[in-house]
Structures are given as C-alpha cells and as structure tokens.
Amino acid sequence: MTTAENGEEGIAKAKASKPDLILMDVVMPGLNGYQATRTLTRDEETKGIPVIVCTSKGQETDKIWGLRQGAVDYLVKPLNAQELLQKVAALP
Description:
The protein has 92 residues and is an alpha/beta fold. It has helices at 7-17, 33-42, 60-68, 81-89, and strands at residues 22-24, 51-55, 73-76. The protein starts with 6 loop residues before the first helix and ends with a helix.
C-alpha cells in the first residue's frame, strides 16, 4: 500500500507504481481529489487504474461531480469496510 499527502504526490506515485486501485480523498492541499481523479483518468499512463473516491463530502452534487471526473465509485466517510470490499470486488 502506498499513500500520498496531496494530489500532486498521488499522481506521481500512481504513475511510478501503477497500483491496481486508488482510494482518493477529496479534501487535500494543492490539487484536490476531484482534480487529481480527473488528471489520472484522462492520462494514457493511468486511465486504466480504477479510482474510488472516499470522502466526507456527502452531498449528491459532490458524488455526481466525483463520478464525472472519472471515479468508478464514490463512498462517504466514515467508510463501511464491508461496503468498500464489495465495491472493490465488483470492479472489472
């Protein structure tokens, strides 16, 4: 498992390590999670890596915006571990 403190670091680490999955928060310094998700899902190097947004931003408009940025799913904190595992298991 690899972690990043901000969007820029997350993008760099994703490009370097090509993880199987990215769990993305929205509220971060620098590039926020929406911006980082959009960058990752539109870049040829990383567009195949599924991104699940996991955040405290729970309004329907937040979820819609996250999915529009390319996230495959959107979960609101506090996370339910079983729900997260079900979402991961359902990935193609």
